[in-house]
Here is the input.
Amino acid sequence: MAGADAAVLAEVVRSQVETHARFGGVVPELAGRRHIESIDEVVREALARAGVGVRDLGAVAVTGGPGLIGALLVGVSYGKALAYSLGIPLIPVNHLEGHLSAAWLGAARLAPPFVALVASGGHTNLYHVKERGEPALLGRTLDDAAGEAFDKAAKMLGLGYPGGPVIDRLAREGDPDKAPFPRPYPTCEDLNFSFSGIKTALLYHLRDREAAGRSWHVPDVAAGFQQAIVEVLVAKTLAAAGRAGVRDVVVTGGVAANSQLRALFEARGKDAGITVHIPPLRYCTDNGAMIAAAGARLLQDGRAATLAFEPRADWAIGD
Ligand code: KG4
Ligand code: ZN
Here is the structure.
């Protein structure tokens, strides 16, 4: 995995947060339908902003998985049609490889080997990205993803969906020591993660207080909860870097937008003599530019697919 030079000409992100917010999470059927409604408009808008026509395109990169099959089918069908009609290559991109490629968008010049943490709503994966070949999986969550823990906690606290941004904001006004949470699965001997227990800890925390007729200060709870998750993500990732003998770490995925996570990675990284690369916020959460960046590199490697390609809901890399 080498850093292909990728310049972003235009970027358009169409969020579905409003569609799903009132249900407290993503509704798969609605996600697929909203994709159908939006995809053509989003592509046209991106081309218009970039000032290029479809005939200027050299290839079409599209997310091939993992993810919700209904949404993947829409993107892959559209990508196939576009590539076929223009007579250009179709490049299916693994969503997680897309998140990893976000490291090359923005300022940082970076070259493998490095260790990467991809923490999103569906994944918490640690990879060793070597000079050549597929990223090797070092650890992953055994149950809930880190972003999922934030989302479920916010739901319990009545803060809406998605939970990460609102907990991040409230935590800044809270005191984590007033609502301490046990660090979830903290041992660095094992580079896997587990975030389902901390959700239960939060449930008991709120239930005990309610039973005792006590209230709770939501910012304190948000701060304590966030700190426990952030500490573990930082500690395990830096331990993985130490063990792999690399000096660079990449942190990406929606959870990498978290302000405390960014600050703590920076500080602890400095202490350990490790450079931590975190893409700009807009490239941490889901975006098309990261898929295009991964696609550009795959194109250089001659990794085009035929029209027989089918999206894969559970497409893993390095596993
Ligand atoms: O990568 P992403 O945009 O989509 C997936 O591939 O899942 O990640 C979304 C996840 C959600 O769980 C959301 O709560 C979390 O990223 N997230 C955050 C923050 N912003 C988004 N988690 C913690 N702090 C944030 N500031
Ligand atoms: Zn994602």
Observations:
- The chain has a mean pLDDT of 94.
